[in-house]
């Protein structure tokens, strides 16, 4: 059984001015809520002690809230110790004071709980100690896995580089083909322009030659006419 202690208290908020008892008006009732203020006679052997006690009591009563006064009036007799049950817990009051309430919190043992309660998880089985041969085998297996992973990574890198090389070669080949085709087109245009120019020059020379022949014929005709007329 587990025992736990807890305390709870009332509020100690100060009274409002209208709720505080007036010191000038003496109480007329002798009910449990009434407070009688009595001063010690001057012939008392302890006048200073009684005065300090009364002043401290007055200050304490001023600090108590109206709720505390009402509760003290209606519950002047202490309650009997009763046992309260809340599921798997039992609450047993111990003592009650103005500052708070103390009680015991009793938890039921695991055997007292319902059988439908889920059972706690069992601890995993303890691993047995491995021998030197098993450790060596595990190390060798780990080394083999490391080598296989390393070989796989290297293979992937080689494939990636080969793919990059193929892409680069293809790009270079396409560039060379484009350059070659552009050069061929340029040469064709230049040759066509050259042929056209040569044809134009030949035609021009032919026209000039024809003009020269025509001019020579005209001169001969003029010379013949001049001879005949002369």
From TrEMBL:
Listed transmembrane segments: none
Chain residue ranges for the region called Disordered: 1-47, 109-133
User: What's a Pfam family in this record?
Assistant: Stathmin
Against InterPro entries, the record matches this protein to:
Stathmin_CS, Stathmin_fam, Stathmin_sf
The entry's keywords: Coiled coil
Q: Does the keyword Transcription apply?
A: no
Similarity comment: Belongs to the stathmin family.
Q: What is the designated name of this protein?
A: Stathmin-3
